[in-house]
Design a protein that fits this description.
By secondary structure, this protein is α/β, with parallel strands linked by helices. The protein has one domain: Purple Acid Phosphatase, chain A, domain 2 (4-Layer Sandwich), CATH 3.60.21.10. It is 29% helix and 25% strand. The chain has helices at residues 17-29, 48-58, 66-73, 81-88, 92-99, 139-145, 224-233, 237-245; strands spanning 6-10, 34-37, 104-106, 111-114, 127-130, 133-136, 153-156, 163-167, 171-175, 183-186, 192-195, 201-209, 212-220. The termini are far apart.
């Protein structure tokens, strides 16, 4: 890949059309050469059909995340609240588009795209989770998860946490963060929370220079109140709080 190339990596949009539009506009202002989509595209109580329509028209290099798999599984039996809502509010054309995405993608000899890790869409790449919660992963953990990937830039998502880690072989693992949801709680593999502290849409710009990849984490304002109102109208007070604050628990008053 030639020097000076600029890649915008989006991930974990979760049907947040307003955040997606803001991120795309910001990427255009940044003068990126192309944009990639790291999965978890539609799941959530927001605007999955409008989000799919916008992205289908763009034709971005795109992979499937765990929520694509879970959303499509709703064809056989009811899924979780976020997946089921999205499944019921998209068309068969949208679902066919989701089915077309691979779990990982070698964008070039220098760039690799996965959702969680190269071997799992459910494992965080740059975070370790145990009974005390989630934290930055150890170098040993990241090295193990990157085993077999030769590209110098490895792009991931899933944890919604913007982060980068340098590993052996002059490789750089970069989590783009989440375009559409800046906080959540989870009980897998152990109870933990993720929170970024503000409601801004997040994505990353990576630029290839003479001495390696430079990374710019973008934090973009958008109408998060509209997103939160939509979540609340669709019966998800938890999502509304996460969208309004970027925090996983109510704030002290």
């Amino acid at each position: 890949m030639e020097r000076g190339i600029r890649i915008a990596a989006l991930s974990d949009i979760h049907g947040n059309i307003w955040a997606l539009e803001a991120a795309l506009q910001d990427a255009k202002r940044q003068g990126v050469d192309f944009i990639v989509n790291g999965g978890d595209i539609l799941s959530g109580p927001l605007e999955p059909a409008a989000t799919a329509d916008l992205l289908m028209g763009l034709g971005l290099p795109t992979i499937a995340g765990n929520h694509e798999r879970q959303l499509l599984a709703c064809e056989g039996k009811p899924g979780g609240l976020s997946d089921q809502f999205a499944f019921e509010h998209v068309t068969e054309q949208h679902r066919a588009w989701l089915r077309s995405h691979p779990p990982v993608l070698e964008l070039s000899a220098e760039v690799f795209l996965c959702h969680g890790t190269p071997s799992s869409d459910l494992v965080y790449f740059l975070e370790d989770v145990d009974r005390t919660g989630a934290r930055a992963a150890t170098l040993e953990s990241v090295e193990q998860r990157a085993r077999g990937v030769r590209q110098g830039l490895i792009l991931c998502g899933h944890s919604h946490k913007p982060r980068a880690a340098a590993i052996s072989g002059d490789r750089l693992v970069v989590n783009a963060g989440s375009v559409g949801l800046q906080a959540y709680d989870s009980d897998q593999p152990h109870p933990h929370v993720i929170e970024n502290g503000t409601p801004h849409a997040r994505y990353v710009v990576c630029e290839r220079g003479s001495t390696g990849w430079s990374v710019s984490f973008r934090c973009v304002a958008y109408d998060h109140d509209k997103a939160a109102a939509t979540a609340r109208r669709n019966g998800r007070k938890d999502w509304a709080r996460w969208l309004e604050t970027g925090r996983a628990a109510p704030q002290d008053t």
